[in-house]
Amino acid sequence: MSEEKVVVLNFWPSMFGARVIMALEEKEVKFEYKEEDVFGQKTDLLLQTNPINKKIPVLIHNGKPVCESNVILEYIDEVWKDDKTLGLLPSDPYQKSQCRFWADMIDKKL
Ligand SMILES: N[C@@H](CCC(=O)N[C@@H](CS)C(=O)NCC(=O)O)C(=O)O
C-alpha cells in the first residue's frame, strides 16, 4: 500500500498503547507517534478521535480513527496482511487461545 498515513496517540507507560506499537513494529508499518498526557489536558485530537472513551491508544489511518487496543490490533492484522508479514496470532487454535487468554488478562487486571 502506498501513501499511508498512520498516527498513534499514546501515553508511554500504557500497556494498551504498547501492544499497538508492538503490532505496528512487527508489521514494519511506519507511523507518527503522538504522546498524550492522559492525566492532564487531553488534546483536541484525542477528544475528536475517541469521543466515547477519551482514552489512548488511538490509531488514525489515513484520517480514520480506530479505538480500543484489541480492535486496533485486529484492524492492523487485517490491513497489513501480505505474503511477507505473518499474522499477529499463531495459526494453531490452541496457541491462539493462549494469546487471547493473556490479552484478556491484561484487559481485566491492568
Ligand atoms: N480498553 C482500552 C483501555 C485504554 C486505557 O485504559 N487507556 C488509559 C491509559 S492506560 C487512558 O487513556 N486513560 C485516560 C482516562 O481514563 O481518562 C483499550 O484497550 O484501549
Task: Produce the secondary structure layout.
Blueprint: E1 6-10, H1 15-26, E2 32-35, H2 44-49, E3 58-61, E4 64-67, H3 69-79, H4 93-109
Parallel strand pairs: 1-2
Antiparallel strand pairs: 1-3, 3-4
Helix pairs in contact: 1-3
Glutathione binds at residues 11, 14, 16, 38, 54-57, 68-70.
CATH superfamily: Glutaredoxin
Query: What is the level 1 CATH name?
Result: Alpha Beta
Q: Please tally the helical runs, counting DSSP H or I stretches of 4 or more residues.
A: 4
* CATH-defined topology: Glutaredoxin
Q: Ends: how far apart? A: 35 Å
Distinct small molecules = glutathione
Low-confidence stretches: none
The tally of domains stands at 1
CATH architectural arrangement: 3-Layer(aba) Sandwich
Task: Report the principal-axis shape.
Answer: globular
Structure notes:
With 110 residues, this protein is an alpha+beta fold. It has a single domain (6-109), classed as Glutaredoxin (3-Layer(aba) Sandwich). It contains four helices and four strands, in the order E-H-E-H-E-E-H-H. The protein has a four-stranded mixed sheet with strand order 2-1-3-4, covered by helices on one side. Strand 3 (58-61) and strand 4 (64-67) form a beta hairpin. Helix 1 runs parallel beside helix 3 (69-79). The N and C termini lie far apart (35 Å). The relative contact order is 0.18. The model has no long low-confidence stretch (mean pLDDT 94).
